[in-house]
Amino acid sequence: MPIKIPADLPARSALESENIFVMTEDRAVRQDIRPLEIAIVNLMPTKIATETQLLRLLGNTSLQVNITLLRTAEHVSRHTPQKHLERFYKTFAEISHCSFDGMIITGAPVEHLPFETVDYWQELLEIMDYASRRVYSTLYLCWAAQAALYHFYKLPKRVLPAKISGVFPHSVLCPECRLFRGFDDEFTAPHSRHTEIREEDIRLVTGLRILAYSDKAGLAMLESADRTQVFMTGHLEYDRGTLDAEYRRDIEKGLNPAVPEHYYPGGNPEAVPQMTWRAHAHLFYSNWLNYYVYQETPFGFTSQP
Q1: Prediction pTM value
Q2: CA nearest 75: which of 128, 123, 113, 127?
Q3: Is 154 helix (H, G, I), strand (E, B) or coil?
Q4: Does 246 or 6 have the greater pLDDT score?
Q5: Using CA atoms, how far apart are residues 65 and 249, in angstroms rounded to an integer?
Q6: Which of 32, 147, 153, 286 suits 139 as a labelling partner, its CA being 20 to 30 A distant?
């Protein structure tokens, strides 16, 4: 939350130059406070694990956040109990008349498929177009980031020679970006994917800004010029054991996966994985909620779902 200070306090300019969020007294008097309405479009098969990961991060601020969980009507989930979906999730048709302050659209394990052959592709197109009109800030994760970049900017996804799996260092390219307030110059984040969006393709379109890059994992974070769309190719939301579970799942499938890089101590898959991204994960989601949603969305923007 911001600190409230007099507008003419000498410390104000120093604090603002250090990216400390300050609010002057006259703005504080006019400030309207209400809960944020955030929708999570959960495309992951392990919906309960994914919703828990995201809610843990969204709940670690002093902002009041109302969550609406969404699923696609066109896809039958085989890994989440139907009772859970019926009890806690809505479909797009049920909320299409509403607006949201923010929306998160997760990744999905469908990278091997052309976008148009994914069984819920048309429904996802509707959701993404809706988000561009009725959601103030949308955060696209992993495959959803690739899908949105393909839909809105005609950027192709490129197949990697081998799966990227592990925890990799990333350089912050735009330290003035409010998403990175409090970040170190370098941060780590998990990646788990077979495809990528390439920098040379990004350079051919207008309206996008590259925010973070990894020498090994490539483009890590981008945003639209108006900052209403944020694209993250990695998984800051992952728990300590998520990559481990994916690695052992691939072994059981007979895929002979490579050991996730920079994840197990000494590269030993029998060791407890190291979690080196937790602090930056909490900080990123706190910054997104505060600076891209709470501070930007007009007071009367949303309607209750």
Answers
A1: 0.88
A2: 123
A3: coil
A4: 246
A5: 34
A6: 32
Contact 104, 38 (CB under 8 A): yes
Query: Each residue of 93-140: pLDDT tens digit?
Result: 999 999 999 999 999 999 999 999 999 999 999 999 999 999 999 999
Measured distance CA(104)–CA(106) in Å, rounded: 6
For residue 178, give the nearest of 129, 237, 227 by alpha carbon: 227
Query: What's the CA angle centered on 171, arms 165 and 175, to 5 degrees?
Result: 140
How many CA atoms lie less than 13 Å away from 109 in the CB half-sphere?
Answer: 12
The residue ranges of every structural domain in the chain are 35-240+280-294
Q: Per residue in 39-88, pLDDT tens?
A: 999 999 888 889 889 988 988 888 888 889 899 987 777 777 888 888 88
Taking the C-alpha atoms of residue 113 and residue 104, their distance in angstroms, rounded to an integer, is 22
Give the E-state strand segments of the chain in sequence order.
3-5, 22-24, 36-41, 65-71, 89-91, 100-105, 135-141, 158-172, 186-196, 208-214, 218-224, 229-232
The architecture that CATH gives domain 35-240+280-294 is: 3-Layer(aba) Sandwich (3.40)
Distance, C-alpha 236 to centroid of its chain: 8
Judge contact between 34 and 297, C-beta under 8 A: no
* Catalytic residue IDs: 142, 235, 237
Closest CA to 15 of 4, 29, 27, 26: 4
Distance CA 250, CA 304 (A): 41
- Nearest residue to 304 via CA among 106, 94, 137, 42: 94
pLDDT of residue 164: 95
Distance CA 56, CA 242 (A): 15
Tokens matching residue 270: 């029998």
Residue with tokens 């020498």: 215
